[in-house]
Amino acid sequence: MIAYLKGTIASIYKVSGNRWTLILEVNSLAYELQVPSNLVQQLPEIGATAQIFTHFLIREDQAILYGFGSTAERDLFRQLISVSGIGAALAIALLDTLGLPDLVQAIVTGNIRALAKTPGVGNKTAERIALELKTKLSQWRTETGLSQSIPSGPSAAIIEDVEMTLLALGYTHNEVSKAIKAVSEDSLIAKSKNAEDWIRSAIAWLSQEVG
């Protein structure tokens, strides 16, 4: 119905928890959009011009306009809310927690542990998301060219081994996630199916960054 809006940022404010509202003025009309917190961090200052890609969601008792920084984020949001039991709030939370590339990668590889890091997403919900969207998103990211910017990454089993080992060594979840992402960008390690290679590389990276 509304593909995108381009106008002046009138205001941005937090509603509650992790919910943010953006007021965008377009041709003297002020549109209220609910947006992910990661978009808030990317927006220019109030008074500047912004282009926001939208999804208009109509429920029995309300109509809400959601805003995103790219068509890919908007399309992924649509895929997520198509899953049984996944509402708009949970879809936004998934995008906020993992970000577009890591969220797509987690779903395609069936990384339940990564998906379950999102508040409100348990293992059963994570499994359902992966089951229903794995094939769809694998095809979608190839068709959109998104796969060219997403490293193949380790398997879910390797990620679990790396996480358990590094957490046992005292590293935080945030440090572990950054290490896995950094190591994934190494083309030689990315091709390895040996968890020990990933662990050694992750420890080496963390030693430089943390220590």
UniProtKB/TrEMBL annotation:
* Matches recorded under CDD domains: UBA_RuvA_C
Described purpose of this protein according to its UniProt entry: The RuvA-RuvB-RuvC complex processes Holliday junction (HJ) DNA during genetic recombination and DNA repair, while the RuvA-RuvB complex plays an important role in the rescue of blocked DNA replication forks via replication fork reversal (RFR). RuvA specifically binds to HJ cruciform DNA, conferring on it an open structure. The RuvB hexamer acts as an ATP-dependent pump, pulling dsDNA into and through the RuvAB complex. HJ branch migration allows RuvC to scan DNA until it finds its consensus sequence, where it cleaves and resolves the cruciform DNA.
Can you cite an annotated GO cellular component? Answer: cytoplasm
Q: What is this protein called?
A: Holliday junction branch migration complex subunit RuvA
**NCBIfam families in the record:** ruvA
Subcellular location, record wording: Cytoplasm
Q: Name one Pfam family in it.
A: HHH_5
Where does the record locate the signal sequence feature? none
Q: Which UniProt keywords apply?
A: ATP-binding, Cytoplasm, DNA damage, DNA recombination, DNA repair, DNA-binding, Helicase, Hydrolase, Nucleotide-binding
Q: What is the lineage of its organism?
A: Bacteria, Bacillati, Cyanobacteriota, Cyanophyceae, Oscillatoriophycideae
Positions of the UniProt region annotated as Domain III:
154-211
- Gene (UniProt): ruvA
Domain (Helix-hairpin-helix DNA-binding motif class) ranges: 78-97, 113-132
Q: Which GO terms describe its molecular function?
A: ATP binding; four-way junction DNA binding; four-way junction helicase activity
